[in-house]
Each structure stands twice: as structure tokens, then as C-alpha cells.
Amino acid sequence: MRRAALIGFLVLAFAGPAIITVAGASRERTLAFTLGAPSTTPAVVLRPGATVCQGPIAVAAAFDGVELQPGTFGAAGSPLAVDVRRMSDGGTIAHGRLAAGYADVRRETIRVGPVAEDDEVAVCIRNAGSHRTALYGSADAAVRTSTAMLDGELTGRDLDLVFRTNARSTLALVPDVLQRMALFRGGWIGTWLYWVLLALLVLGVPALLARALISALPGRVDEGEPPAP
Q1: Is the pLDDT of residue 221 over 50?
Q2: CA angle at residue 188 from 182 to 192, to 5 degrees?
Q3: 166 and 111 in contact (C-beta within 8 Å)?
Q4: What is the DSSP letter of 15?
Q5: What is the secondary structure of 92-123 as a DSSP string?
Q6: What's the pLDDT at 166?
């Protein structure tokens, strides 16, 4: 009975990492990072031709899409032009457009092209249509290092912006996570150490538990110990 239980444990212990690997490889994520301002209220109202810019934004991970929540006041959505601009010189490094006709208060993602990690940018949204459009967000305290400016004037608000990237599996994010963990440690500690610790956790712990259980099985003779008379 105990031997059958041991075999069952060994199967679970060593099959578990394989199951987790398969699940992680099949589950996809598109989130690069978020600004952290919830959609609690219409933050700004863009009249035709008006532009709101949220910045500065430290790009925590590369992205190619900007998700926002527009309000159309019950009408068909007005087209929006989205520019991603460098904070250093104001140059546009990515651009996208949301076509007219989108629904009221529905989240939309605008593809803007690749923006590299570690850039510092502003995201500017211009109402390119003939009807007013609201953009949702929250009070300015939600994002302390960034703010929204409407046609160059402070609004006291933050836009709810979410930054998206091409679909990646959860497993594919592990190297990035370990690399970022290593950034917070100095000296000789690097990403390699976290890979070693992860391998020990996934493989070493089940192996040690299995050895302990095998040693506890009845009839096992330890090395150096004479058999019982």
C-alpha cells in the first residue's frame, strides 16, 4: 500500500512541472503594462480637433497597442488619432488611428507600431472627427509621475491607458520576469542565479521528497547499518 502511494507521489511530483509547462505555454497574454489609472469617470472631453497628451510615461515593457475607453455621448464614435511621442524632443515614434463608428463606453485598442522598452514617452489622442468624445480615467493622484494635458493645459486628471503587445504565452514571460528580478540585486547576483533556484524548486524539491519517502519504506536497509536479526 505504501509502495503504491509512493509511486503515485512520484508520478505527481515529476509530472506536475510538465503539466505547468504545457499550461503556461498555451495561455496567452497581451498585457505589456498599465498606467494604473482606473476608469472611474470621464477624465477629459475632446471637442473636434482637440488633443490630450498623457505623460511622461516610463515604458516598462515594449508595446505596440494602446487601449483606452472612449465615451461617445450616445452617438457613433468620432475617429481618434493616437501619437506616441518621445519626451526628450517631442518626436513621434509611433502612430495609430481608431476608425469612426465605435460603440459608447467600450474599451478599444489602437495599434500604433512598436515602442521600445525604457523609452519615456507621451501618448497623445486627437479628436479627428466632428463630434465630441470623452476619454475615461480618474483624478490626477492616480498616477503621481504622469498627468493629462488638454491642448497644453493641465487637466488635473489621468487617462486610463493600457499598453498591449503581441500575444505571448505566460511561459514566455518567465525570462523577462527573472531578468527584472536581477535588476534589484547588485554584485555577483544575476539572472543565472534565479534560473538555478527555479530549477532546484521544480526538480530538486520533488527529488528530495521522493528520496525521503523511499528511505522510509519498510524493508529498506540503510548503508552502513547491519540488517535486523
Answers
A1: no
A2: 50
A3: no
A4: H
A5: EEEEEEEPTTPPTT--EEEEEEEE-TT-EEEE
A6: 81
The DSSP string of 42-89 is EEEEE-TT-EEEEEEEE-SS-EEEEEE-EE-TTSPPPPEEEEEEETTT
Cα 57 to Cα 144: distance, rounded to the nearest angstrom: 11
Instruction: Give the integer Cα–Cα distance in Å for 82 and 197.
Output: 43
Q: Which residues pair with 84 in a beta bridge?
A: 94, 123
Tens-place pLDDT, residues 108-150: 999 999 999 999 999 999 999 999 999 999 998 888 899 999 9
Nearest residue to 174 (alpha-carbon basis) of 196, 197, 195 = 195
Angle at 146 between CA 144 and CA 152, to 5 degrees: 135
In the sheet with 28-34, reading across from the earlier edge strand, the strands are 28-34, 162-169, 63-68, 108-115
Report the DSSP pairing between strands 153-154 and 80-86. unpaired
User: 138 has which bridge partners?
Assistant: 158
Q: Which of 215, 174, 214 is nearest to 9 (CA)?
A: 214
Question: Which of 1-5, 69-73, 137-141, 200-204 is predicted least confidently?
Answer: 1-5
pLDDT band at 193 (very low <50, low <70, confident <90, very high): low
In the chain, where are the structural domains located? 2-27+171-216, 31-167
Q: What is the dotted CATH code of the domain comprising 31-167?
A: 2.60.120
> pTM of the prediction?
0.64
Mean pLDDT over each residue of the chain, to the nearest integer:
80
